[in-house]
Structure formats: structure tokens, C-alpha cells
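Why do we bother with holo predictions? Because pocket geometry can differ from the apo form. Keep that in mind while you read this record for V47.
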Amino acid sequence: MSRHDLKDIYEKVAEGERVTFEEGVRLFESNDLITLGEMASLVRKRKHGDYVYFNKNRHINPTNVCAFHCNFCSFARTSDDRPGAYTYMPEEIVERIRPTVDEGITEFHIVGGLHPKLGFQYYLDVLRALKEAYPWVHLKAFTAVEIDFFCQLENKDAHTILTELINAGLDSMPGGGAEIFHPEVRRRICPEKADMERWLEIHSIAHSLGLRTNATMLYGHIEKYEHRVHHLVALREQQDKDLAAGYSGSFQTFIPLSFHPMENGLGRRLKRRWTSGVDDMKTIAVSRIMLDNFPHIKAYWVMLTPAMAQIALEFGANDIDGTIVEEHIYHDAGAQTKEHMRRSELMRLIRAAGRTPVERDTVYNVVKVHA
Ligand code: V47
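The structure, written out:
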């Protein structure tokens, strides 16, 4: 497909009009990467000019023991006695991370396994301990799948569970656990997980409680372009509803996640096939074009590599995540990237792309514009 074939969609995007499901599929089918990048850049520039956001954050994965069996996951261990299984108690977490936490850090990103035995209290205690030890740090914690698991453990509704978590220190929610919403794919990769309706419902309840949340999409495995577009449209519709409802929370950032095929059953079945650079950039671009009501698109450097995250800035991304410090989910699945990037390195990456680095906190308050 050439630029000419995308002309009608290009004109809609230039006019700020919404792209349909069918047009979204056409965008994915196109190999005209430059035109896709131009279209995504139109949307990105309108929203953010040349600002590129990053933050000083640290990932924390309290346990990798998980009751679920998602076939794409290399991080989870099915029980405490499996090789490599770990669980850190709340006080241990506080002490383990102390050497890497300074006053400049603004976010802990906390996700982990659905431990079959620890109970909800453990997860509340993790938040409380971190908030008490590092009260200035924003706690972005627990995916909708984890929240759904807590509801089952406690036999309580999501509104109650989220309120308890907020009282323990929860400030916002990350976007994980979304994978691919379409049931044809979801039942083949993560049948035990909360389904699309439940995942969206939990985010909507979080929004009604004033939380900002993120959303992800795990692509590059058995899904088709139609499934990706279905996923994007579902997120766009939920955001429309929550904005119309006047909730004080909403989705803020979308993060496409490319499948990493090492050390997991799905990867073995797919003969350890990695996504291509073209697919990675196309997915960033189509996400930016379709999710017109999402403020931010993140190029997660751990997943993409710093070099490709930098290129993604020309395909609609306006955020590259943060310093991270310690990362398990992608490194267990074969990522060759570093786990830590210094703030100065992140800024160099952004500047070398001709853009302005903007340090932010989790909810995009500007810490500093590095003009
Ligand atoms: O939900 C698991 C994915 C997610 C693999 O909100 C895999 O700012 C690829 O959600 N290959 C967790 N992906 C990570 C996540 C995230 C990351 C960065 C920023 C934010 C944010 C959220 O990782 C899981 C799953 O979709 N995942 N295994 C794998 N083998």
C-alpha cells in the first residue's frame, strides 16, 4: 500500500477526525511506514508539541509466585518451591530498595504475581510500608487483574477493594493485564485472567474514584490486526464513557508491549519469533492515530531498546518511561536491554531526537522542562 492508498485516512487525521475500525485495520495493513509516522506525528504534535516526557521511577515486583498460568509469561513461578521463586516481605522491600531511592525519585511501579497464599493483607502492607518509608513517592500499583484477584480473595467488590488500597497508599494504576481483549485470543493466552469487560470495569471504577490509570496491549504473538484494532477501539470507547461521566480519573497513557518469546510456552510454540522493528513502529503509530482521547503514548525503552524508543518518537510516542532501576518481566523473557537508565541518558536520547526532555511525575505534573 502506498501513501496514495492512505490519502483519505490522512485527510481525516489532519482534520482531527476519528479513525474507524476498518480504517485502523487498513493502517496496520499498510507498509508505508513514513506516512504512518507523519500521521501519528500530526496527532502527537497537536497534543504535545516537541515535549517528550520521562520520569525518575523504580519498578518493584514483590513476588513472582503466581496462581495463574499465562502462556506468554516468563516471570511467574507456580509455587514458592519452584526454582527462582521469590517473595519479599514488606520490610524487606523497603530495605532492598533503599540504596537506589533518593529524593528525586517520584514513582514506584509495583506489580507482581497473584500469590495463592499470602492474602490481600500482604499487598496492603506492601503499600503501607513503602508509603511510610518514602512518603514523597507516588505508588502506581497493581493491574486490574491483580485487583480482580483481590476481590476474589476477599469476596468484596472492586469499589471496596480499590478504596482499601487507596487508604493504604495507592495513588494510581499501571496498564498491565490487558494483553489482547478479544476472547478468541484471550482464551488461548491467559484464560484465567479477568476478561475484557471486567478489566475495563475495574479501570472505570478506579477512574470514578479519581485514579489515573494506564492501558497496555501485548502484541506480536497469535493475534491478528483485527484483534489489535478491536482492543484499541474498546479502550477508546471506555475512555469516552468515563470522560462523559465526568469522573476525576481517566486513562492517561497507552503502552504497546511487544511479545518477548524466551523462556515461555507461547514463545516456544512460535519458534521464538520476535516482533520486527517495522511492526513495533507501526503499532506505536496506529495506537497514536486511533487513541485520540488518550493524552499520552509511551515507548517503553526496556521493551523496544533505547534506540528504537528514540525512533518511536517519530511515530507518535511522547513518553519513554523512566529510570526503572530493576526489571524482571521483560528480562526473564529475553530482553537484552539494561535494567537502569540514568536521567542524563534519558535526556540525551530525547535531545538527540531533536526534542525537549520534560521530567514529569506519574500524573504528568512537570518536574522540570530541560529546554
Ligand atoms: O501485563 C508479560 C506483559 C505486562 C511478557 O503502566 C510481556 O506505565 C512481552 O504492564 N513479553 C506488565 N510482554 C508490564 C506493564 C507495563 C510496563 C511498562 C509500563 C507500564 C505502565 C506497564 O508485561 C503484562 C504483560 O502484558 N508481559 N510477559 C512477555 N513475555
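The chain is about 45% helix and 15% strand.
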